[in-house]
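Reviewers of the previous submission asked for a worked example of the structure-prediction workflow described in the proposal, so we include one complete record here. The input consisted solely of the amino acid sequence. No template or homolog information was supplied to the procedure at any stage.
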Amino acid sequence: MTESSDPPTVRRRSGRSSGTTTDEALVGFTVGVTAGRRSDTLAGLLRQHGARLVAAPALRMVPFADDAELRAVTRACLSEPPDVLLATTSTGMRGWLEAAQGWGLADSLRNTLNDAYIVSRGRRVTAALRRAGLPAHWSPPSESCDEIVAHLRGRGLPGRRIVVQLPGERHPEQTDQLIAGGAEVLEIPVYRWAPPQDPAPLHRLVDLVGARLVDAVTFTSAPAVAAFLRTAGDRTALVLEAFCSDVLAACLGPTTASVLRRHGVPVRVPRQPRLEALAELIAAELPARAAPLKVSGHLLTLRGHAAVVDGRLRPLAPAPMAVLRTLANSPGRVLSRTALLRALPPGADEHAVEMAVARLRAGLGAPRLVQTVVKRGYRLRVD
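From that input alone, the workflow returned the following structure tokens.
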């Protein structure tokens, strides 16, 4: 039995929640995943759409289960019961109750929190509260800190004692607004964020974003965005420029997106802060950015590290893909070897351009798509 050498066809199906989605909507596209926790879940969802992934955890979570500070603030919470509990993460609430269990304080803590007005910052947090036998009285529709503050102001802040379970780091803007409104705030540090044990994948992802060699990057927490930008260092301007043009920045929710939006990045956020919705958003967004061209009687679409010719996926090496992308940015126009040279890595010469064009024609399976214009250069034969 012989194996077919035909390139794969990009097939489509009707999506369930966001218009037209495809089983292989992301074939040919590369997506960076910065999540540490739940990264396997998100990666699996993106792979279902055919994406090629670059896994680069931006942070790792370090629990405070045996930390003296956590025990001290827990006792402070018990001695002066709160009027309001702000539960920000499912992991944090589970970790806090598990730590209290180890100290023999779990029942006392549950009883104390059960008497408070509990604000849950999302669906997963609400589920964790219910599993612990605690109610969730209100949850912000968009998980926004501003919404939470506005809601608590509406209920009256002066004299209120508010316990805030921290999401890995302090949120001084939110805390300062609550204190300014007259509330007393007790912060609960259940865990903290630390750099990944191996920072090499994150540095590599930063380089790939700067070189426009990934099509999208996913962020599932604000600390992960901040860690990514810290890792970028002197490459930050290059990375932000890429996010503003060729690379999609996709964030799980508005709080996560706020860090990039402060830098002017046009972030995309799903309607619901769920990993499934984030994957669906990317599966709809990236193909929509790839406008097809009619070239020499063929339908040509560019997809990250591949081209689709008449529905057939044609993976390309970086140099031929860079040349094709440059030609497609000026469809029908003749570009000189010098102009195409700028798309190749530093140190390449005009012979490298000729080699890249030859490999491009072979890779596309339709040599007539790229025309040589004698003594002038190359162009796409746009119909």
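The CA atoms of residues 60 and 194 lie 5 Å apart. We consider this example representative of the routine output the project will generate in years two and three.
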